[in-house]
Design a protein that fits this description.
about 180 residues, alpha/beta, 5-stranded parallel sheet, homodimer, about 15% strand
C-alpha cells in the first residue's frame, strides 16, 4: 500500500510558526520507515522555480501555483510530498486542493503573530517592523488561515516533535504512510 | 524492474523537427504497457512554471533549468519523464545531464531548418521570417546540436512511428521500460 500512496502534506502558517522544524522531524521519521519523500519548501522553490518573483499578491500566487503544479505531478505518481511555504492566501490553497483531491492534506501550523515574532529565528520580524522588509506576512501583508484544514498543529502548546507525531498518526490512520517499525 | 526505473527522455530539436508527434506515439505505447509517465512539453511548462519568461538566452536557460529541476524530482522517484522543449543550448542540457546522471537519455530530433520550415505545422517559421516573431530558434536564434546524444532521431528519413519504435527499442535494451506484450 503506502509506497504507492502519493499525497501532499501542505503546510500553511506564518514565518516562524514551525513549518520547517516540524518538516525536519517528519523527514527523519519517514526516511527511517523507507518512504519516498520530496520536500518543497519556500526557499527551494523560490530558487529553482520562481527566481525573479517578488512578494506582491500576484507573485505569491504564482509561486504557490507552481508548488502545487509540481506537488501534483509527484503525488499523482505515488510520491509523497511535503510543501512548507507560508502560502498565505486561501483561494490558491483551495486551487491546490481542487487539483489534488483526496491526496491533499492541509496542515495549519498555528501560532500567533506575537509568538512568531518573539521566536523570530531568522530575524525577519525585526526587519519587517523596521520597514527593511516590505510585504511581510502577518505584519504588513495578510495571512488567511484555513477554514477546514485536515490538521491544526498548535505549536504554542506542543513541541515540534509532538507536532510531527500528531501528523504521523494522522497519516498512518489514513493509510498514507507505512506504520512505525515496532521497537525490538 | 521497470516500474521503479525512473528516467528522463530529453528531446532536443528545432520547432517542427517532430518532438511532439513522436511524443504522442510514445505516450500511447507506454500507457499500453502500463508504465507511469509524465510529459513536460514546452507549452505545458511555459504555462505552469515559466509564465512571464521570454525567449532571450537568459530566459530560455531559466525555463530549461526549471524543466530539469522537475524532471529530476520525478525521475529520481521512479517516474519516467519525457521532456519535449527545443532546449537549444548545449550547456544547459549538459547541466540537466549532470543532475540526472544515468537517468538522462538525450534524444536529438534531427531535421534541417529547411525541412522544418517546409513543414511549418504551426506557421511559426513564416512569422519568424516576416519578423513577427523575434528570437526564433534556427532562424534568428542559435540551435546547438548535442555532440554525443544517446539517440539521434532522423525524422527526414523515417516516420514518427518509426522514430518512436527506435526509441522504445533503446529504452527496452537499457531495461528502462517494460517489454512490449507479445501479440496473442
Amino acid at each position: 500500500m503506502a509506497d504507492e500512496n502519493g499525497f501532499c502534506l501542505w503546510f500553511t502558517g506564518l514565518s516562524g510558526s514551525g513549518k520547517s522544524t516540524i518538516t525536519t522531524h517528519l523527514v527523519k521519521e519517514l526516511r527511517k520507515r523507507g518512504s519516498k519523500l520530496e520536500v518543497l519548501d519556500g526557499d527551494v522553490v523560490r530558487e529553482n522555480l520562481s527566481k525573479g518573483l517578488g512578494f506582491s499578491k500576484e507573485d505569491r500566487d504564482t509561486n504557490i501555483r507552481r508548488i502545487a503544479f509540481v506537488a501534483n505531478l509527484l503525488s499523482r505518481n505515488g510520491v509523497p510530498v511535503i510543501t512548507a511555504a507560508i502560502s498565505p492566501y486561501r483561494e490558491i490553497r483551495d486551487e491546490a486542493r481542487q487539483m489534488m483531491g483526496d491526496r491533499f492534506v492541509e496542515a495549519y501550523v498555528k501560532a500567533s503573530v506575537e509568538t512568531c515574532e518573539q521566536r523570530d529565528v531568522k530575524g525577519l520580524y525585526a526587519k519587517a517592523r523596521s520597514g527593511e522588509i516590505k510585504e511581510f506576512t502577518g505584519v504588513s501583508d495578510p495571512y488567511e488561515p484555513p477554514e477546514d484544514p485536515e490538521l491544526v498543529i498548535e505549536t504554542e502548546r506542543q513541541s515540534a516533535e509532538e507536532s510531527a507525531h500528531q501528523i504521523l498518526a494522522y497519516l498512518e490512520e489514513r493509510d498514507l504512510i507505512p506504520a512505525a517499525v515496532a521497537a525490538a
